[in-house]
Amino acid sequence: MGSRSVSLFFLSFFTLYGCANLYLWTWMLRVLPPSALRRALSLGLLFLALAYPAGRFGSRRYGGFLWESLHDLGSLFLAFLATAVAVGLLVEAGRLILRLGGIRFTPKAAKAVFFTVLALIGAVTAGGALAARLPRVRVIDLELPRLDGQGHEMTVAFASDLHAGSAIHNARLRSMVELIGNLKADLILLGGDLVDRSVTEAIEEDLAGELSRLDPPLGLFAVAGNHEYYARLEPTVAHIEEGEAKVLLDEAVTVADTILLVGRHDVQAPRFGYRRASLDELLQGRTEELPVIVVDHTPRDIDEAAAAGIALQLSGHTHRGQIWPFHLVTGRLFDVDYGLARIGGTWVYVSNGLGTWGPPVRTTGRPEVVLFRLTFR
Q: What is the mean pLDDT of the chain?
């Protein structure tokens, strides 16, 4: 991402972040009369609002326990704030409807609603922080066509969006890798966004060392997600491949004479000067009887996969919104933002990911690793 794009992103993000904090503060001012409690809560809100930007900057610039703790606290508050603003707007809408019906909140009722809502959101955020650390294994049985009629079976483990770095430290990363490895799959596929903010952080958390502990008999393959491009593609790919993973960038390989595996450049690649080839180009000269599995980080070009006769496409990226109510946004942005779908003759699976981006919280579903038990007929 160019410096201008980065600046625009952060300007937009922190403008929205500031407005969200201002909204929460003004909500509090409306329901609490001037008092020591209001002053204390205002100072507490100011501290929490500054925790995320200060922690983000300090952890990157200086490192150390203090800055990392501030970043973690600010990240949790970010999840709380996003939910609080969404719920607050719903409360405002309900209050307006009641007012139109001639019903008004008393000051006491408004105060009770405010603290009840914040308490519930705090509990949901805490639950989401716990859920983010409790990944599940989802098992899916699929039958894929093979034109020569020869029957084969294969197990494939798929994980996406590990985000090693600022929130996913080595201990978490190791537990993720152990979860994947314990499945004993024939083939392991990683769907991109293995790093978070920078390759330096991924190196500090020993991403390559952890990946090297995986030793599936048919290989370990990965693709680049948008975060690999943000972190600088070449050094990031080099580090991932130090972990014995082959990163496929618009490349196709035959696996065990059973499938043709295609790994694509992400849809963000052209923004960074990389050309994203079409599937027709990538499939030129393929062996027709082999079913094609495509790993494409962002599930945007699903129709292209269906038109090309792909048997199975695996994607990630969306996190299924990660935090309520952002799953409503991803549901509108992508035809498939989570789970298994059939588009024409093509199976598509979009994972909600294994790690977290930004807040270490998940309130739209637990993280996952998917084990596909494939049968070829």
A: 94
Residues 6+ apart with CB under 8 A from 221: 187, 188, 189, 190, 245, 246, 247, 248, 253, 261, 263, 295
- 3-class SS at 351? coil
Question: How far is the C-alpha of 53 from the C-alpha of 367, rounded, in Å?
Answer: 26
Q: Where are the domains of the chain?
A: 3-131, 137-376
Q: Which CATH architecture has domain 137-376?
A: 4-Layer Sandwich (3.60)
CA dist 31 and 145 (Å) reads 63
Residues composing the chain = 377
- CA atoms of 289 and 297, how far apart (whole Å): 25
Q: How far is CA 126 from the centre of its chain?
A: 19
User: What is the separation of C-alpha 14 from the centre of its chain, rounded to a whole number of angstroms?
Assistant: 20
CA distance 28 to 41: 9
Q: Which residues contact 291 (CB under 8 A, 6 or more apart)?
A: 144, 145, 146, 259, 260, 311, 312, 376
pTM: 0.93
Helical residues (DSSP H) of 286-372, grouped into ranges: 302-307, 327-333
pLDDT digits (tens, 9 = 90+) for 295-337: 999 999 999 999 999 999 999 999 999 999 999 999 999 999 9
Which pair of structure tokens corresponds to residue 263?
A: 């790994």
Cα 12 to Cα 109: distance, rounded to the nearest angstrom: 35
